[in-house]
Amino acid sequence: LDQNNATKNFDLTTAEPLSITPRFRLRPSARFVETRDSNRRNVLTMAPEPGLPPSEAVVTQRTNVREISGSMQATYLLTPRLDLGIGGGGTRREFTEGSPGLIDSRTLTGNASISYRVTPRFSPGLFFDTSYNSFDGRPNSRTYSSGLAGSYVLTEHYTLDARAGASYLSQSTGVGDQRNTSWSPNGRLSFAY
User: Fold this and answer.
1) Taking the CA atoms of the chain, what radius of gyration do you get in angstroms?
2) How many whole angstroms separate alpha carbon 135 and alpha carbon 92?
3) What 3-state DSSP class applies to 57?
4) Around Cβ 87, how many Cβ atoms within 10 Å?
5) First to last CA, the chain
6) Cα–Cα distance between 159 and 172 in angstroms, integer?
7) What is the pLDDT of residue 1?
8) What are phi and psi of 135, to 5 degrees?
9) pLDDT: which is higher, 41 or 89
10) DSSP assignment, residue 176?
11) Calpha distance 132→28 (Å, rounded)
């Protein structure tokens, strides 16, 4: 980029969860990002004569984007082997120059999980996630996901985590109360050091 201040990024989080009590831990995070970057999109232009199809053009421009987000994750040890996790967060994304065709948005998320420590190294469990996305002047959407999760400590420093389940998407069409809905599988595999 041709500017020194093209990106401003501020992250505030904890390396490890904060232990409030021996059984209760919190992990807060906050983030502010402001960028001035290239944005490329296709634009349809109506033909000057009726009956002709619209023409499509590629528009590239620099765009200022500001994103502010925060989250809080809490873990509570119900029994020596049973963990309950609850969390949530929010993100606001704004195009600060009012560029046509680019839409500000907000996302709210929530999650819950429960895991049981079968051995000191293996913990299976269940999870539930949800998110609500809203856009200025556009239809909104809701997503619900749930499934099975597992964590396995390979060695003192390596951990393998896996999740598999299904997601349900409900998206407003913008016409009355009509909604488009769909189901899809989801999964995640991570290896951490």
Assistant:
1) 22
2) 10
3) strand
4) 17
5) 33
6) 39
7) 45
8) -130, 140
9) 89
10) T
11) 20
